[in-house]
């Protein structure tokens, strides 16, 4: 896949950006824009921040190792960028969650009853556990190289699994928001097409990222010695 | 993971069965049961058949190689079971799709407008392509062992990717059906809890299956020479 590596990364970036732009367009143009005042415009921050942090930024953080390691960049810089992108994603995700809870509380809407919220809490909990384990085992200097080697495959597996769960949570959330926004869905007005397209772009982004991460490691330009975990 | 292999397979089976039972209970007990007469009871066949075929049966078909190859079973029997389970899944899936189209047409409901349907058609198309390629390359005797070896990693990757997309489609469909069934969702009546639990079980099933399929191949009891593709 060496010839396909750069085109696939560019495809992933295009799909990830399309996801963020389509969700932003839906919330910003068709559902009233953004505010921080308990109104539905505060809610609108939630989908934009969650897709940007838990899909686009998270997906890019997972690809950083494939893109940069082995290229002439110090390994600690790659690790710091991976961790930094995930910490930035965590901050944006926290603001995105605060927006929806504040909006619900300000309007007397119950929290945490929907499949979207159950999935979301499971995903965010696993994401935070993965972040803490990753920081503790790979970034801090305490873990033995044996522990690092034995944890690596779990970290990679759950990295992709949690990204996929994050995407599934977004899809369910998009469907929920379409129903709450009370458009005539079956007539496919512009916001319905934009919402459907955003969902499809999210799925295509995650499949492309997973393909880049798991397929034919040896042929990628970032081919390197994976046993060097420091 | 050798010690964990059997418990993980049992966990996957429990989660897969729970998914089918919960969806069956929701449709059979709370949404009026089943029929083939254009009524909403015909629609009810759709969720049950799709989850049973495209999640439970498909997930099991993917695990058959891990569970049986290397055990003292002829390889052709394992291949035939894998292909047979997927062909049975295809038949059940076709009936499940016929149920929803007939129900829509009988009631003047438009087809193919929702994110659920867009995702579903993408997933089913990729599933059928994967089935045709799998049959043509692995089961029929025409392909060279070189072609088989080079296609195997794509077949495995897309097997898991399509299973994940199938699960995501089910989740979006569950959310859609909750809204169309007009319960007071936020009060979490029994069918809402059952539907949420079914969604969570589907996610947990697919994550467990993906873990079984991708992690630590060497330590599984089905450790074998993967280069023997005949």
From TrEMBL, chains A, B:
Record-level GO cellular component terms: membrane
An MF annotation (GO) of this entry: metal ion binding
Annotated Cytochrome b561 domain residues: 11-214
Membrane-related topology note: Multi-pass membrane protein
Highest taxon of source: Eukaryota
Cofactor: heme b
Gene3D superfamilies for this protein: 1.20.120.1770
Transmembrane regions: 44-68, 80-101, 121-144, 156-180, 192-214
UniProt-listed Pfam families: Cytochrom_B561 (PF03188)
SMART domains in alphabetical order: B561 (SM00665)
Entry-linked InterPro entries: CYB561/CYBRD1-like (IPR043205), Cyt_b561/ferric_Rdtase_TM (IPR006593)
Record keywords: Electron transport, Heme, Iron, Membrane, Metal-binding, Transmembrane, Transmembrane helix, Transport
Localization of this protein: Membrane
Name under which the protein is recorded: Cytochrome b561 domain-containing protein
Biological classification of the source: Eukaryota, Metazoa, Echinodermata, Eleutherozoa, Echinozoa
């Amino acid at each position: 896949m060496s010839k396909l590596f750069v085109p696939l990364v560019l495809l992933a970036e295009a799909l990830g950006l399309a996801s963020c732009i389509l969700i932003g367009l839906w919330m910003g143009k068709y559902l009233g824009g953004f505010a921080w005042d308990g109104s539905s415009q505060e809610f609108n921050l939630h989908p934009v921040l969650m897709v940007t942090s838990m899909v686009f930024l998270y997906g890019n953080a997972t690809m950083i190792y494939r893109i940069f390691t082995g290229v002439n960049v110090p390994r600690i810089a790659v690790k710091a960028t991976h961790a930094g992108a995930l910490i930035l994603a965590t901050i944006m995700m926290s603001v995105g969650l605060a927006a929806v809870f504040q909006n619900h509380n300000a309007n007397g809407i119950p929290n945490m009853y929907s499949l979207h919220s159950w999935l979301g809490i499971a995903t965010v909990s696993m994401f935070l556990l993965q972040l803490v384990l990753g920081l503790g085992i790979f970034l801090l200097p305490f873990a033995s190289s044996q522990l690092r080697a034995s944890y690596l495959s779990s970290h990679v597996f759950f990295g992709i699994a949690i990204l996929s769960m994050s995407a599934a949570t977004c899809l369910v959330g998009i469907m929920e928001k379409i129903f709450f926004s009370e458009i005539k869905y079956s007539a496919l007005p512009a916001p319905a097409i934009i919402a459907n397209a955003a969902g499809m772009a999210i799925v295509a982004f995650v499949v492309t990222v997973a393909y880049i991460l798991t397929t034919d490691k040896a042929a990628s330009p970032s081919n390197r010695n994976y046993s060097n975990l420091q």
